């Protein structure tokens, strides 16, 4: 029978609210620029098919597992794991799933808020006509000047955190639910309006060709890795958000069909974003390069030189802000829910406390682009790795190696730790815990499936295919870049610039493989588990 625990934070009014909320969590800045770009670069329609296969093998299985865990526990991810571990009589080490998820969302929001603040500032820049008639130099200078102004970045970071906290402190129903019901429909409306504008004023045919022509010759081993990685990260997995939202899911809602709807909407938003962006890019002879350069230099330049660009450019950055806002709401919820439960305090007080800590941590990201840009972690030098260094001093010590000196700023470090370590590791542990740690009948009953065949297929994929795929994503994210790009090798020595990292990363991969095999072997020794309990 199903678990009938009730969340102290509230329950989504219906299944579609949960779908909108989870889609809002999944749709973020990456959907607006990254997915359309990697689709075009890796074979268009051929890559979309590869990506959908990866979603089926990685994204959907883990998301179903995370939602099921959240709905069974009905608490914050941290306390949900404590409850599920007790129920399954599993080892206490599994608590790491809850803590790591909440901490990952916490750390990500600290720098995500700063970057979302850039979009907010560009709404005003476009609306004020800053880019009307602009050239490449002016567009680049505007972006550089913004990054070089810590007081301005701090202001927009603060405004965005206040907007996010303002939703969370009102609770699940009055806050998150009400905001999502407005934000997500508006996001789709804005996308459609911008697609109409792009079709009229841009090169729509070339954009469709770039994104959807199935060129299987462009598919490679790297394409598979890119599809695997994006399939995992695009659904906000491993950061506690989906588990927290799952805790508020109505009991009668089907987890499987709901997750399929979320994955479909997330992919649809990414494809529509491409149809809104790339016609404008191609019509202006711009390169569809990924990253901040596309959003904050190329597109403002394009809008500034198109009819109606002042209005539609501002509209575009409102769209970007909405996407970031809906994601930010989900990132802060796990930590806020835990604070309410742990300290028995009001949601308002918990939100203010958590939001302030995140805002304070975000100051490090603000200064990473200006005053602290010279201070780096894990700097690579001809003599090895410096754990912490001042880049200007390193350049003075190694004047002939300036081009090869690299390091991570405070922002880079947070981004690397969360994206390359915490999220894939969290997703891997979720798959292993639900697949091997929880009792079979608890998982089956929580799913409330009508067709056991579909459950069994999902269960096999989750246990024996998904962990391997996530492990590949995990190791690929840690390996040196030149493992996949020969151009990054040193021309003279043939040595990868990241070679000092290679050995410990491979050792980590071997350890993960051994642990996985050990869990499987231990699981196979257990007696058959029925559905009676």
TrEMBL record:
Residues spanning the membrane: 16-33, 45-65, 96-120, 153-172, 179-199, 219-247, 259-282, 302-329, 350-369, 416-436, 457-479, 506-524
PROSITE patterns noted in UniProt: NA_NEUROTRAN_SYMP_1, NA_NEUROTRAN_SYMP_3
Membrane topology, as annotated: Multi-pass membrane protein
CDD domains on file: SLC6sbd_Tyt1-Like
UniProt-listed InterPro entries: Na/ntran_symport, SNS_sf, YocR/YhdH-like
Compartments where found: Membrane
Keyword annotations of the record: Membrane, Symport, Transmembrane, Transmembrane helix, Transport
Main location: membrane
Record flagged with keyword Flavoprotein: no
Family per record: Belongs to the sodium:neurotransmitter symporter (SNF) (TC 2.A.22) family.
PANTHER family in UniProt: TRANSPORTER
Protein name, per record: Transporter
Organism: Litoribacillus peritrichatus
Lineage start: Bacteria, Pseudomonadati, Pseudomonadota, Gammaproteobacteria, Oceanospirillales
